[in-house]
Give the backbone structure.
Amino acid sequence: MGLRRAIVLVALMEVTWSLNVMTIGPETVFSAHPEAAEENAEQEAAAAEEDVMATGELNPNHYPAQRAAKVVQHYLNMRYGSPYKLFGLKEVHSGNVEEVADSGRKYQLQISVQEIISNTEEKCSAEVFFPSGEKQLSPQVQIPSCEEILKLDATSEEEALYQQYKTNKTVHTEKPLPDSYGHIDPEMIPFWHLSIVATSFIMLKESTQNTLYNVAQVANITQLATENDQLKFDCHVLLHDLVSQEIPQVKLLFTWSPAEGVKVLHTEQLPHIHGCEKQAKPN
Ligand SMILES: *[C@@H]1O[C@H](CO)[C@@H](O)[C@H](O)[C@H]1NC(C)=O
Ligand SMILES: *[C@@H]1O[C@H](CO)[C@@H](O)[C@H](O)[C@H]1NC(C)=O
């Protein structure tokens, strides 16, 4: 009972922290419902005790469905995200999971996806397959229906940003995004979005049925010189796994242009920070 209470408290601290620090980005979408977080934490504690992998209909508000749906968000950002297109998970309407003959588990979901910048929302169906086996493989995502939101066009904003930073300006952060007051310089918002999009490649790859990753903070992002048409960036990102409360740090080298989208050239995992240390030592 004491343990369960402690987990609930951690979850609630998390919500407060999220709302204070993360004014923009997918995490607020998930954290806007403290009651759901508490319920989720209770459920999680129960699930951790039993450690069962149920099949069949899922409660859409509980972790198994939420975690699988989060993978769809990472996939959408990886495939379609840009400095002016960022997808968030708004709601899970229904979910179902089945074992696939010794090869893994397949989730079928009905979800509402939001494009955060244009504030557009669409109900989509999605399938997420988690392969089983000793070597951890990336989940596979299919999105049979999600038409309108993927057609959103931000070409003119992307092109304008690209031209500026190709010719005239360079990105170099002095402060993390967001800073310890939850603020982001408006000029840096497209690069905060772009960093989340680039980090989605890692979040998708590292996701399992037992993780729920969000970007907590972009510690820094620096533009590097290039010889080609791409803009090139080096960034350090703090992820947050809501399930384990771990804060993995990753270093990413990636390029972006409106024509080619985001390409991740190199990633490096740095030592984890634990949730409580992060709380005790704000930047
Ligand atoms: C560079 O930026 C300045 C002001 O920010 C602008 O007046 C100028 O036209 C820009 N030059 C180019 C080549 O884009
Ligand atoms: C970026 O942040 C990381 C982690 O806080 C730090 O190790 C690194 O030196 C920083 N890089 C720059 C260019 O500020």
In short: The helical segments are 2-21, 26-31, 34-50, 63-80, 155-167, 189-206, 275-280. The domain at 2-150 is CATH 3.10.450.10 (Nuclear Transport Factor 2; Chain: A,). DSSP finds seven helices and nine strands in the chain.
